[in-house]
Amino acid sequence: MKVVFLAIKITKYGGNQMSTLEKINELTHLRQNIEVGGGEAAIKKLQSEGKKTARERIFDLLDDNSFVEIGAFVKHRNTDFNLSNKETPADGVVTGYGTVEGRLIFVYSQDVSVLGGSVGEMHAKKIVKIYEQAMQMGAPIVGLLDSRGLRLQEGVDALQGYGEVFMKQTLASGVIPQVIAVLGDCAGGAAFSAGLADFVFMTDKNARLFVNSPNTMKEKEANFDRISSAKIHASISGIVQFVHDTEDECFGAIRNLIEYLPSNNLEDALFFDSSDDLNRISEELNTIIPNENKENFDVSVIIQTIADDNKMMQVSELFAKNLFTGFIRLNGMSIGVIANQSIEQDGFLDTNACKKGAKFIRFCDCFNIPILSLTDVGGFTSSVEEEKQGIVKETSKLLHAFAHATVPKVNLVLRRAFGSAYVVMNSKHIGADIVYAWPTAQIAVMNAEAAVNIMYQEELLTSDNPEVLREEKIEEFSNLQASPYTAASRGYIDDIIEPAATRKRVIAAFEMLFSKRELRPSKKQSTLM
Question: Which three-class secondary structure state does DSSP give residue 441?
Fold first, then answer.
């Protein structure tokens, strides 16, 4: 009976097979036209400029054959200014989801070959939809920006689209990681999407990020190189955290970054199997601190030495170089690292360093990434310009970020820890869970030489041998006030450790702190942002 039933079905419906095939052919034809975007000529122009198409960028970013497109058949519905006569395949933005190393990622990629990648009503709605799904699924979102800005033909509808996108970015902030890559023009209001993101990547060529065009500025020297280049935004404005020569390098770096991040704020820091010995001893750290206090050293060497397989990913490398921020793994766990870099400006904190550090700490706290700080700070940069730029406010924000963070926090004092700058750098006094110090650490109100010059000013002026007296008093101050053992005796330091054993001691601290829970007063948000 079953065989007869199948035969009847085939006979009954076989006549419709051609119409079904025609519909499938129509679907295939429409999809192919959409995937060509602005057309072959536009694609060739992109290729001649060394740029990829919107779809090629997505394919290069995600795992092979993992991309699933959403909203491919969406197009504009505005008819003003002859728009009804213009085709806008996918309305100039490719949206969907896929995977990076098997993890779910949502992505949108603006297609500059379609009306310059301009943002119109439906273009924006597609991005909003992807944001909604990313938040529902608790997955990171990556935006690949290449747009000439607002679609002028759509007027207020386009502005509404901008607003809806910015609203979704604001709601997603602190819920899912947001990564933006600027791969072409990112002009006008479109630039706010970069400003609202957690991390911004930018290619060194063919990419510009700006709100106002130079021709709207009064300064004669205004040009795109001075206001919109990757170099400007990575080293001066600080908006861009990563700069790469090619798009391929950029996509590889985005994939690398995502591997350090949890998918959302409800997940713990990621764990990976590590083949590196958690008890590894690094004898080279015993001699890395110079004997002469005025000599400096590269703190990134210490960070790299204690990290799993000596791998680290530095964030905002070109901005505020006197403060290191980045990610490492310790026994497979993602860790955020913030450290004073003495080879740049003697490691002193300034306005930009405080901005950089505060933003990084807030991100780590939002996404449950433990924080390791390495302290070697002699104070704050002293200048009229720094005071004008608001070093008081920005330092307060850095202090607030450390004190407000409830993730596990471990501080390691390497050498100098002087004055209020020491307090700001994740000291026990503002909430560090564990504070270690190397024997080379000096923890005091100020450096011994300056303190002696102030405290013994009269004695030094009247002494027959002021230099001998100064050396005696410096040694006395160092032993009584600046010694790490003095701080440890008061409970400000939990332990003084051998530098070579830093890796295993820090790992042990974070493993102990893994289940940390800290309740804070209920409030909507802090006012200091």
Answer: coil
pLDDT score of 487: 92
How many helices and strands (H and E) does the chain possess?
20, 16
Asked if 421 and 429 count as a contact pair (C-beta separation under 8 A), the reply is no
15 DSSP assignment: G
Residues of the chain with pLDDT below 70 are 1-18, 78-85, 446-448, 450-453, 456, 460, 473-474, 476-481
Q: Token pair of 135, please?
A: 């938040």
How many Cα atoms occupy the beta-carbon half-sphere of 76 within 13 Å?
Answer: 29
What DSSP letter does each residue of 472-521 carry, written as one string? HHHHHHIIIII-HHHHHHTTS-SEE--GGGHHHHHHHHHHHGGG------
Residue 327 and residue 313 in contact, taking contact as beta carbons nearer than 8 Å? yes
Distances (CA, A) of 521 to 241, 317, 510, 524, 525: 33, 35, 25, 10, 10
- Is residue 376 within a helix (H) or strand (E), and if so which, with residue range? strand 371-377
Full DSSP string of 370-429? -EEEEEEE--B---HHHHHHTHHHHHHHHHHHHHH--S-EEEEEEEEEEHHHHHHTT-GG
Half-sphere exposure of 105 (CA within 13 A, CB side): 29
Residue 483: the pLDDT is 86
Q: What's the CA gap between 168 and 129, in Å, rounded?
A: 9
> Which tokens go with 269?
């820091």
Nearest C-alpha neighbor of 369 from the set 242, 265, 511, 253: 265
Structure tokens, 413: 């004092």
Answer yes or no: are the C-beta atoms of 286 and 499 closer than 8 Å. yes
Note whether 243 and 318 are within 8 A (CB).
yes
pLDDT in tens, 319-336: 999 999 999 999 999 999
Whether the CB-CB separation of 229 and 210 falls below 8 Å is answered with: no
pTM: 0.90
Q: Which helix (H) or strand (E) holds 323?
A: strand 323-330
